[in-house]
Specification:
The complex is a heterodimer of chains A (113) and B (111). Chain A is mostly beta strands and 113 residues long. Chain A is built from no helices and eleven strands. Classes of the chains: A mainly beta (113), B mainly beta (111). At the A-B interface, strand 5, strand 9 and strand 10 of A face strand 4, strand 5, strand 9 and strand 10 of B.
Amino acid sequence: DGGITQSPKYLFRKEGQNVTLSCEQNLNHDAMYWYRQDPGQGLRLIYYSQIVNDFQKGDIAEGYSVSREKKESFPLTVTSAQKNPTAFYLCASRDRGLDGELFFGEGSRLTVL
Amino acid sequence: EDQVTQSPEALRLQEGESSSLNCSYTVSGLRGLFWYRQDPGKGPEFLFTLYSAGEEKEKERLKATLTKKESFLHITAPKPEDSATYLCAVQAHNQGGKLIFGQGTELSVKP
């Protein structure tokens, strides 16, 4: 079955450590997105990529980095520069470029101790 | 600035008690409005896309409508399994495909 796989589902890290969240899709979608979700807040866009080897900053990119070396993969690194990294992270992809719905993965919950 | 506001923040219904969720938006040229359902600890699940004022879409007990300023998600005779958080998002023209989400409405349906 086609879909988006995020891993790990739960991740605990010490303050000051970089962590990388994996996102893989087998939907053959060109565009991929990373969102952050905090309790009581809407999803906020971190980074997005519309094509391989290209990506753009979203609304809250500070303290995060991404790469898009393959069409099916869009990993997110949460760096030590991110001041409040504990959150639920959602990866999504989209067919047809700028139109159509986003398909979401199951999310990764990061807790920084 | 493009904005999406959902109300109420939380809604408790008895099974069979119909109601509506509201999504008010301010956007510089609407390209599409999206409704999603999200269960606790899960990723959002797509429900509907609406593109122009007057458009309506239905799926089982859910019906989404759109005006120039807001969208409603009507829930008819809800069941406990409809309990979830419902998210609204808008996409504007010339924004590179970005979706702006509201904070969601948490719906609880009691038997």
